[in-house]
Design brief:
Elements lengths: L1 E3 L2 H5 L5 E4 L3 E2 L2 H11 L4 H4 L1 H5 L10 H6 L1 H5 L3 E3 L2 E13 L9 E14 L2 E12 L7 E11 L2
Parallel strand pairs: 1-4
Antiparallel strand pairs: 2-6, 3-6, 5-8, 6-7, 7-8
Family: Belongs to the enoyl-CoA hydratase/isomerase family.
Organism: Saccharothrix texasensis
Protein name: Acyl dehydratase
Length: 152
Amino acid sequence: MRVFADLEELAAAEGEHLGHGEWHEITQAEIGLFADATGDHQWIHVDLEKAAAGPFGAPVAHGYLTLSLIPLLVRDIYTVQGLAMGVNYGLNKVRFPSPVVVGSRVRAGAELVEITDVAQGKQAVVKVTVEIEGNPKPGCVADTVVLLVPAA
């Protein structure tokens, strides 16, 4: 875990790779819960028999499930002290280069691409790459945008 004392120290790390998080296994239960939450019950995610005979040989996680795991996967990479809050502001670009098959382990790598001053504090663009263990292609690459507000 990389710990930044404040926003100025974080800003000094612009352009740096911040590290990697812990591995997380993608389970069928997790995929099923996501399907229920989103209403996306496409067979490639939830029909075990049909997916086993499909193009990937097993069910695959929804791309948006992989994207939604970013907060979990990044939480052990870095933290900034002295914040009132950090708020997701959006995404600049998201790609899903490789499917994430059930049973795969994924982890995130984070790179601080850009940090700019805004009225409430700083806005950071962090490129998050969700790696799949044993696969040269990532499951997701996303340029996340975070608003970081210092404590009063």
